[in-house]
Design goal:
The protein is α+β, with helices and mostly antiparallel strands and about 80 residues long. The protein has one domain (about 5-75): Alpha-D-Glucose-1,6-Bisphosphate, Chain A, domain 4. About 25% of the residues lie in helices and about 40% in strands. It has one helix at about 55-75; strands at about 5-10, 15-20, 25-35, 40-50. It has a 4-stranded antiparallel β-sheet with strand order 1-2-3-4, with no helix packed on it. The longest helix has 19 residues, at about 55-75. It is globular and about 40 Å long.
């Protein structure tokens, strides 16, 4: 398990920033933000910056899994729309 630190939460801009503070990361900073895309759509942007680069192969499947959970959770069919 890795500890994360909340860096910023801005409800007005719908942006969350956090950092993983445990090894094996020597640097980690991530943000997620939601943007309106018309009247009934949104765009979700997740940016992750970390070192060492060799962790990309380990991090990518975790990020993909998290994105699939977010997508399933927020899809209009699930929300009854």
């Amino acid at each position: 398990m890795l500890r994360e630190r909340l860096v910023d939460l801005d409800e007005e801009t719908r942006r969350l920033v956090w950092s993983i503070v445990d090894p094996p990361y020597t640097h980690h900073n991530a943000s997620a933000q939601v943007f309106a895309d018309g009247a009934d759509r949104s765009v979700f942007i997740w940016i992750a910056d970390f070192l060492p680069n060799e962790l990309a192969g380990r991090a990518a499947p975790l990020i993909e899994h998290a994105l699939s959970v977010i997508k399933r959770t927020l899809e209009p069919e699930r929300l009854g729309q």
